[in-house]
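SUBJECT: A protein chain and its fold
Encoding: whole-number codes for local backbone shapes
Chain under study, with its fold:
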Amino acid sequence: MKKLEGKVAYVTGSGRGIGQAIALKLAADGARLVLNDIDEAPAKETIAKIEALGSKAVACVGDVTAPDFGTRYIKTGLDAFGRIDIIVNNAGYPWDSVLQKVTDEQWYAMLDVHATAPMRILRAATDFIRDAAKKEREAGQAFNRKVVFISSIGGVCGNAGQIAYAAGKTAIIGMTKTMAKEWGRFGVNVNCVAFGFIQTRMTQPLGDQAIVSKIGSREVKMGIKPEMIAAMTATIPLGRPGTPEDAANAVYLFCIPESDYISGEVMLASGGLVI
């Protein structure tokens, strides 16, 4: 039997990159997925890949920072599958500037997507989590549920030029520690994976022209200068950047039964890199 057979996992930002890799990893081990992407096409693509693995998935398309998203997302999953077992708060993106150039819009955008949106999702899940734990204990059953936050080495160690992004990613660490204490009584393990340099569309090499990605109605410059990529790679003890699959494998460790007595932890998935 697969380790996640019968489980329902919610993964935000799962239409592309790391989020899609996480969703596919969990689906391959038996989980049904409640997906999300800001755009419909990538969400449909991930659903097709999950169905090809023999599992099932539904999508809640939209911006995770919308005030009603958390409630809508949890309702989508409960309507489709009737339960919550795993929540991976993955959605996010960098919007970088040094302090003197950062705008209020940038600052609040980074806090909204990395901290406010996950808070709303967990708040919307509280009634189900609390009531399910009570019923299971009254029936003499013991189930562990899992919450995994996604931070960054920049959130752990800081990074020049990323004050807003680092603030959002550091907030996630405090949320991890707090929710581990609040939800431990419900049998929920709450942990955090902080990624190092992972190769995605957001970290692709910059050419002569800036790479602009559309995040909803917002255009955000992405990418890293090749010389910076080379410098970062040279400092990674394992000698290479991580892949989305490497990132997904780290998250998976916090979703399986072997981590049932681990909570409130922050694990670096960085190939040994510590800034």
